[in-house]
Design a protein that fits this description.
28% of the residues lie in helices and 25% in strands. By secondary structure, the protein is an alpha/beta fold.
Length: 229
């Protein structure tokens, strides 16, 4: 039976958030944002180990005690220039305990509200899939394309458009090959698509939001408080 390995790229600077510390270390209820993503993955019985990919210059990780997450957690200071470089670094670090057909679930450090049932649904729905796939949500809003003056140049048809979430789940060897070849991709599925493959879309949930701007942090805090009530 193939194993399930999680990789959490956490080497970004979070420039869009505009805080002093990288956004994965901003706190909700006394714990860094990344704790919640790691906790959801470590708690999943199907996942055998969880690799965190940090920047080689990371100065925050060791300020926290991660012991409560148990012995699935692994840390690699191999983050790169882009998310794809960081994930590739994580795959290389994990290679010693992974086989080519093991599944890899890549999950953003800044997505703290991943429900356990949704994670399990992704794993179950992709179990027999030849390519793999991602959590995603159909686009609900009308989409506008802006011009250089911040005015609307066009309305884009939203039919068939989905917003990619994470985890994104692919076989270890396929993902490694895809990320080695791809350039300019912003998620793992993009690299797999560039190989001519069509990853599956598994319906996600709006609570599985990515913290990008300050208002997202407050919303994530409310969602987590609701879950733990
Ligand atoms: O910037 P964005 O929100 O798209 O980042 C998504 C995830 O990728 C975050 O968890 C971030 O820390 C990670 N990342 C990384 N290495 C980079 C850039 C982003 O690990 N060079």
């Amino acid at each position: 039976m193939p194993k399930h390995i999680a990789i959490v790229p956490a080497a970004g600077s979070g420039a869009r958030f505009g805080a002093e510390v990288p956004k994965q270390y901003l706190q909700i209820d006394g714990k860094p944002l990344i704790y919640y993503a790691l906790s959801a993955l470590c708690a999943c019985p199907a996942i055998s180990c969880v690799w965190v990919v940090l920047s080689p210059e990371d100065a925050h990780w060791t300020s926290f005690d991660w012991g409560c997450l148990g012995d699935k957690l692994r840390v690699a200071y191999v983050g790169g220039e882009t998310r794809a470089d960081s994930v590739l670094g994580g795959l290389t670090a994990a290679a010693t305990e992974a086989a080519g057909d093991d599944w890899v679930l890549v999950h953003d450090a800044a997505r703290p509200c991943l429900p356990a049932a949704l994670l399990q649904r992704l794993i179950d729905e992709l179990a027999g899939d030849a390519v793999g796939g991602i959590l995603a949500l159909p686009v609900a809003d009308t989409l506008k394309r802006a011009d250089a003056e911040g005015r609307i140049r066009a309305t884009e048809p939203r039919d068939g458009l989905w917003q990619a979430q994470t985890p994104q789940m692919f076989r270890f060897a396929l993902l490694r090959e895809a990320l080695t070849q791809a350039s300019g991709v912003t998620d793992e599925a993009g690299a797999v698509e560039a190989m001519g493959l069509r990853p599956r879309l598994v319906r996600g949930d709006s609570t599985n939001l990515k913290v990008t701007f300050p208002a997202d942090l407050a919303l994530a805090g409310k969602i987590l408080a609701e879950v733990t009530k």
